[in-house]
Amino acid sequence: MIQLLLALAISLLPVGTGLMIMFYQQDKKLDETAQVSVSEAIYSVDLALDRIHASASAAMMLAGTACEDTQAQLVDQVANAAHLRSLALTIDGRTYCKTMKTPNTQDQIFPDEQSQFRLVLDPPAMPNAVLLAYQLREKQLGVIAISYGTLLRNELRAFQTGLTLLLEFADLYIWADGDSRDPVRPSQDEFFREGVSTKYGYTVKAGYEKGFSAREKRHAMKQLFPSLALVGIITGSITYWGLFRQRHQRVRSAASKG
Fold it and tell me: For position 105, what pLDDT does the model report?
């Protein structure tokens, strides 16, 4: 009986050890994926924002010029840039020329001169939409470039790892399937990581929804457990056979001496 229990315990050892190693590697992989994804998201979003900055820089050469002399060129720039919705020129923070007539003035989007990128929710011309606004200032002259929120969402959707990535611009956020208008923020409870763009100042937050790790472990265990169980059965069988032979030899040795 003791030999049987000992063999059973030894057979469970590779199963338990294998599961522990699997769980550790699973958690380590999720943690590393979250950390790497933050860095990669900052890199890819920075590149997208670089395109907006480049468009604003090109329009800055027209700032200060009379609107009737520059509006056609601004319209051409917007037409040739798929990432742009509109451009506007400002003097002393006030819009004096823009490519699109909207109920609100673009200069009201930015609370101060230091603000660069801002999210605009529910703009009057596009209810239920989200836009991305960029402000470029040179002394009293400035350019405001408006892009679409889908530009950011497309960058986030490229990360198909089960990870929830969220971008924060000041007090507003956007993620692949929503934004600050959502009733609750998306769950990022597990393996949470965050980073800040040194170039544009927005924050990337990454994490897995609650329960994601447990689901991944159950899925991996279903695939690995049959192999671990087989190893355990073989190990236990060999152990039991070895113990049985030793006991049998001791009995024979005792009988021969008697």
Answer: 53
DSSP secondary structure, the chain, as one string: -HHHHHHHHHHHHHHHHHHHHHHHHHHHHHHHHHHHHHHHHHHHHHHHHHHHHHHHHHHHTTTTS-HHHHHHHHHHHHHT-TTEEEEEEEETTEEEEESS--SS-GGGG-SSTT--EEEEES-TTSTT-EEEEEEEEETTEEEEEEEETHHHHHHHHT--SS-EEEEEETTEEEETTEETTSSSPPP--EEEEEEE-TTT--EEEEEEPTTHHHHHHHHHHHHHHHHHHHHHHHHHHHHHHHHHHHHHHHHHHHHHH-
Instruction: Name every residue whose Cβ is closer than 8 Å to that of residue 19 and which is 6 or more positions away in sequence.
Output: 221, 224, 225, 228
Give the pLDDT confidence of 7-24 residue by residue, as tens digits.
Answer: 455 555 555 566 677 778
CA distances from 231 to 1, 220, 240, 243 (A): 22, 17, 14, 18
Q: What is the pLDDT of residues 202-223, one digit of tens each?
A: 999 999 999 887 887 776 666 6
CB 189 within 8 A of CB 210: yes
